[in-house]
Known about the structure:
The chain is of the alpha/beta class. The chain has helices spanning about 1-20, 20-40, 60-70, 85-90, 105-110, 130-145, 165-195, 200-205, 210-240, 250-270, 275-285, 290-295, 305-310, 315-330, 340-364, and strands at about 50-55, 75-80, 95-100, 120-125. A four-stranded mixed sheet has the order 2-1-3-4, sandwiched between helices.
Amino acid sequence: MKTNFLQFIRKESLHILRDKRTLLVLLLQPAVMLLLFGFAISTEVNDVRVAVVAPFRSDGVNDAVARMANNPNFTFCGYISQSQIDDVLRTGEATAVVVFAADYDRRMMQSAQGQPASPPVQIVVDASNTNIAGSASVYLQNILSPAASAQSLFETRLLYNPQMKSAYNFVPGIMGVIFILVCAMMTSVSIVREKETGTMEVLLVSPVRPIKIVIAKMVPYFAISCITLTAILLLSRYVLGVPMSGGIGGIVFMSMLYISLALAFGLLISTFARTQVAAWLVSAVVMMMPMIMLSGMLFPIENLPLVLQGVSCVIPARWYIAAIRKMMIEGLPFSAVLREFAVLCTMLVVLVGVSLKKFNDKLE
């Protein structure tokens, strides 16, 4: 019986290896998505065009402008007049305009001495793109707030991601989306294909129990997912520079649990879908938007309406991404993500139970 089970695993493995397109999707797509989000899609401030309004160019103003012009994130577009602000922002010649008060030096000194003073600098930003506007405003404030002759009024410390790299945020999110989509998609399509071609009935009359047939079909995808996980972790660490401060063991263990859950989700989809196209649509299209929008990959869960925050609790990627961020970025040990681990274990047990019951009902 054990030999027959291993033969089923070998049969499915050979089928995957012979299907070059499937193998390409399983191995290449995750790496491409990771590098795309890590390098091409970035929320970091780069090449923000800044113009300056300075009625009186004192030493303090010149020093502040020099700090801004020498910063690699900004491009200094020169000095303009007050009346030109709206024109340069509307035409796109500048993304932000820094307006220095005529008595900038005096106001900065009053602020440094704790005396009440009007703001010495006004930052006018084109907010048609909110991502750039918010980041550019914060960066400009950090550059212009300290003066050479004045003591800084506050100190800011950025923990865990002091360089504000987008990859630190995207890598855990991409891992959560890749595994749930690829594993669920491949598993569901594989089982539905057997139904469509009529070979499932042939397999079911073999000496191996139906549950072992299903497990045998999932084992190769689990092995390939582990290879994908290894590639993602290597690319994250040595190409994107993402730390793994919490220990690689906890990250791998949590990821393997999540991969198992994704495979179980694919099994559940296969019990509903009657065709391969339907399985692709459910796993790729229907699951895509909830995974991206409600998992915390791009947007904070806390910013969602209360109803959607409740819905996000049933999204497995939410708990996996939160756990990976804690271990990978914040450097916390596995004991700090026991709640996420318990939630994913519960989801896995429920999915496996429901999937096997419906699968057996289909057979009967």
